[in-house]
Structures are given as C-alpha cells and as structure tokens.
Amino acid sequence: MSDFPIPVSVLTGFLGAGKTTLLNRLLKDPALADTAVIINEFGDVAIDHLLVEQSSDGVIQLSDGCLCCTVRGELVDTLADLIDRLQTGRIKRLKRVVIETTGLADPAPVLQAIMGHPALVQAFRLDGVITAVDAVNGDATLDAHVEAVKQSAVADRIVLTKADLVDDQDILVALRARLRSINPGAQLLDAQDGDTGHAALFECGLYDPATKTADVRRWLGEEAAHNHHHEHGGHDHDHRHDEHRHDARVRAISLIHDGPLPFSAIETFLDLLLSTHGEKLLRLKGIVELTEDPSRPLVVHGVQKIFHPPARLPAWPDETRGTRLVLIMIDMPEDYVRRLFGALANRPSVDTPDRAALEENPLAIAGMRG
C-alpha cells in the first residue's frame, strides 16, 4: 500500500529539452522504485527499461516495479485510476507519481488538476515542478516561445541539459544568468552533474524528509533567490530583461509582513488578486502568521485561479515568523500587487472592505504611503 498523500512531480521542458533522457536516467535510481510515470504518448517517449508486462489499458509494468501509463482523456481520470488500482490491490505500492508534459504544454493545467480536484487533493500532493532546459537551443527557445519562459518561471528545479555540447562557456554563463532572472527562487542544476539525481530533483515540497520537518525557506526558494541577489550585488534584475521581451513579462516578487495578519486579510487579498488578475498569477507560495492563532502557521499554495486548500502546520519550524508570500506573475502590474497587499496588511480590520474601491485603487482604503 502507500502513504497518502502521494507526492507528484511534474517534469516539463520545451521540445527537445531532453526530458526523456533525464527521465530514463532517474528511473534507474533504486530510490524511484514504486513510481508511476504518466506520459502523453508512448510513441514520443523511448522508455528504455525492459518491459515485463504491457496491459491493454495503457499501463506498462517496468522491470523495477515502476509503472508507465498514457493520459487517456483527462489527467484527473488517469490519477483516479491509479488510486483505484492501489486500493484494489492491482498495484502493490505507489510511492511517487511523475507526470511528463508535452513540450508545448503550459504546466498550469497539470498543476491545477492535482491541486483543485476535491478527491485527488486527498490522495496526492504536488511535490514540485522540474523543468528541463536545452543548453544548446535554450536561449533561442526562450526568445521564441513564451511557453518556455512560463515552464522555467513556475519551476522548483531547473535542469540544464546538453551542456557538454556547448563549446562556448560564455553562452552557458549567460543562459544560467537568464534563467536565474526568470526564476530566482528555483534551484538551477546541471544534468551532467553526478549529484543531479533523485535527492536533488525531488522532495521539493514543504516537508523535508531528511529532517522530518517543514523547511519553509527551501520550499519558498529563498536560498536560491538570496544567492542570485548576492551574485548580482543586490540590484533589481529588470535591466537584464530588456533584450528578452518574453522574460520582461515575468516577475517573481516577495511580499513580507512582520507580525500576524487576520485570516480575513489574506482571504481578501487572494480573492481580489484572483478576481482581477488570476490568469496572470503563474504560481504563489506562502506562509502566514495568523492573528487568530499565531502559534500555527497557515500555508497557501496556488496556480493561477486554483488554490490548494489552506493547510496549517502544527508549529513554526524555526524562529522566523510573520507572513512571506512568493508570487511568480506574467503581465501583472507589480505595483498593484504590492499596494493591494500593503493596503490589506496595514488595515486594522478587513472584514467588510469596500471591495469596489479597493479593487480600483488599493490606496483608497488603507491610506498607505506610496
């Protein structure tokens, strides 16, 4: 059997980025035994395991106990079928699910399927998004396709593939800097690095199995973002986006409030943000100190207009309290987001805000300094 919820990792990357090569290598790791791999079309993916059983319903049993299955109809149906197989004993154990998206896919619908379905959210939890980027063509792909920029922007881990095929090291340095600018919170890894295996790519979620505790800093990507900030002397990254029009559309921002906030403030902030710019919110992660119960932090996690049901941690994992929200946005006015959050965070009570006025002008309620 398996422990619920089962972690789900989404493997994405543009066409030719080397997702399948990376997946094949990962599946040889004994740590990924009892993993189900969901792929779009078997014909497009050359899984190089010895197949010990191929059933007619699109599920392949691999020699090491892993499963591969095609997406038949909705992804939700495929995930529900895996749970049914587990509960009826057709699958003995299931420790993890890896979903490989098509190269052109926006990963948001995949993430929303996991986070937004009332039944699946009980059985599965989103562990993280792994995005493969081709070192040879990555720069041109990011220039040509906003989907590729989105795939990097929502990632928890970015894996640079085919770096050994690039002779000019300056190209690699520039691509790495560009990817860090798009998503300063993601860990940037090299596929050729021997350490880029199961431990580096998975366990991106809030709980760190190594410490058996919640690792908020790691989950929010604060360590990677801090390193990026330090590397560039603390300067804002906007000037490096000028030559890349798609990159300039993406922003990763942090909203921080010291001290507790009422649940109504967070609820209203998210509600207004989603109602006005929900499609532009690629991903949001956060931890909140609540006025109602400051001893137990609230965890929020959303993709566009779909949010995982808010969860409470049993206690703060470290001494750092307050509210920290990390937003990755595309074409969303950063000033509006900051003013809206500031208006609600600094308002004594937001139980009955003038929603129309606040939506039109976040400063109208709070009298917040510009």
**Rounded Rg:** 21 Å
CATH architecture of the largest domain: 3-Layer(aba) Sandwich
Share of helix, binned: 25-40%
CATH level 1 name of the largest domain:
Alpha Beta
Biggest sheet statistics: 9 strands, mixed
Arithmetic mean of pLDDT:
79
The strands making up the biggest β-sheet line up spatially as 3-4-5-2-6-1-7-8-9
The CATH fourth-level homologous superfamily of the largest domain: P-loop containing nucleotide triphosphate hydrolases
Characterize the overall form: globular
Class inferred from helices and paired strands: alpha/beta
- Terminus-to-terminus distance: 55 Å
Total helical elements: 15
Q: Can you give a write-up of this model?
A:
Helix content is about 35%, strand content about 25%. The protein has 15 helices and 17 strands. It has helices at about 20-25, 75-85, 110-115, 120-125, 140-145, 145-155, 170-180, 200, 215-220, 220-230, 245-250, 265-275, 335-345, 355-360, 365, and strands at about 5-15, 35-40, 50-55, 60, 65-70, 95-100, 125-135, 155-160, 185-190, 205-210, 215, 250-255, 280-290, 300-305, 305, 310, 325-330. A hairpin with a 4-residue loop joins strand 3 (about 50-55) and strand 4. Helix 5 packs across helix 6 (about 145-155) and helix 12 runs antiparallel to helix 13 (about 335-345). The chain starts with 5 loop residues before the first strand and ends with a helix. The model is unreliable at about 40-45, about 50-60, about 230-240, about 350-355 and about 360-370 (pLDDT under 50).
